[in-house]
Write a structure and sequence with these properties.
single chain, alpha+beta, 2 domains, 17 helices, 15 strands, 33% helix, GGT_ssub_C
Amino acid sequence: MLVRDRNNESSRLFEFLCPAPSKFSLPDQNRPESLVAVPGVVKGLHEAHKLFGKLQWSALFEGALKAAKDGFKPDTALLNSVNVVKQANRSVPQPLVDGLLTWERLGRYQPPVELEKTLQSLSSTGSEYFYSQANNSFGSRLLSFLSSSGQGWGEAADIQNYTVNQPTPIKVGFAGFTLESFPAPLVGGAYLLQLLGNLDLKDTLAPLNYGALWENNPRETGTLLHRFIELSKLSAVAVGSLGDTSDPKIRDSAISAQNSLFDPDARKRTVNLVSDSATLPINASVPSFLNLSLGDTSIVVTDSSRFTVVISLYLGSLFGNGQIVPGTGVHLNSGLSPFLGPLPPGSTTGTLNLISSGRRPLVPIAPLYLSTTGRKCGIRTGIASSGGLWGVQDAAQTVINAALFLHAATCTLPSGSKPPLALVETDGARSRGASADKGNELNRSSYNPASTRGCINLQAATGFPRLHSDLKNISYAIYTEQTYNQTLLSRLQELGHIIHFWPSDWPGRVSAAGWNGYELMTSYDKRGSWSSAVY
């Protein structure tokens, strides 16, 4: 969770990932208990609430208690995920999945009756009920259930002593904006910031013609996309070397590895590897945790006076490990899934992400905050994504679209209008900077919403067709949405990229909330069933 205080321009980070217990087995998808990590979300939310909450803690549970008592109609996206899991695990009993599949017959999904009691206890005692070992507390029931599996899962102290970390954000500059996010183990932050920071540095060392970009020149725009794709490969390989910076056993090595990603000389060497005329021959393997279906979701909220909050949550896989703690109605996580398994003999890549007591795995998600102080009041917005690394790549493209290609867009599009498209346009419409003359050789400093009166339009930027650099095999094929501009795709193919259209619903989602000067702005991804509300 990232909490941004606009009044003093500071961010407070709450990292509540789920660590490995003191006793564990190697994560095995065929043994659900081996996937369970020490839960952290409840403690994290409670700690943040004690510092920043405006309502009573108990008031936050009113909606959840009503849904637990009366049931609710599941969201379409939730049901789609249920069907995916059920098809993949036909013979494995999963109470939550099976229960959700009954909603149509009943007209609603009815959670386990014990869940309402658990929520009542949390509402009245804070996080104490969840983490204590008092008789009949959730903590004692969790330990008893997992210990009965015969695996020797954890100890009471693992739950009682769970700590919420409050790290310092990492920051980079991009197109005049400041981007900030989480350090490892939330490696979505390091991935996104290194990718966009290096894209910015590449343009400094080898400037693009922004006049040609604003005119939708396919060669210049294709070059920018090519750079983005190539740098995304390098960033994916790089974050595989990271580790939990809060684990005292590896802290020095983990911090050193992360610092090396943002070292100025190292960054220059990285961007110089990228040629504007060919693809990179990358022989390093991409760590498997980057391709997991994490069961993640994100929330972004802003108020009318002071705070913007971005939260990323994950279960470790779709619907966690499938088990429910008896007597609680609480569904267990599979938070140990992102840890790497035994490495091949002689391998050194990813050694910081091996499972160890108290260590938190690398997870490719992270909240993002974009801001500028280069103009009065400035642009300040939180950006959330879901879909693991796929969603993080989508968030990076949304930032590029908003910062570089929608300079002339109004903050609020007229009803029924089409957004100006440049980076991945589908109808030939253009987005031109206020000072851009056709054919002029311009760099981005000629017109930039970070330092001029222009605003950014995140809703339009979110709606652009997207691409994704596949990291599952060494070919690094590029997947795109069906509406992607064919001229740009042809240019990428000329440079050696293998292009495939994504055959189904696009996996990533992006949303944002914040401020353009004194105007509130929100955006949500219309690819799915997400929605936004303004109060």
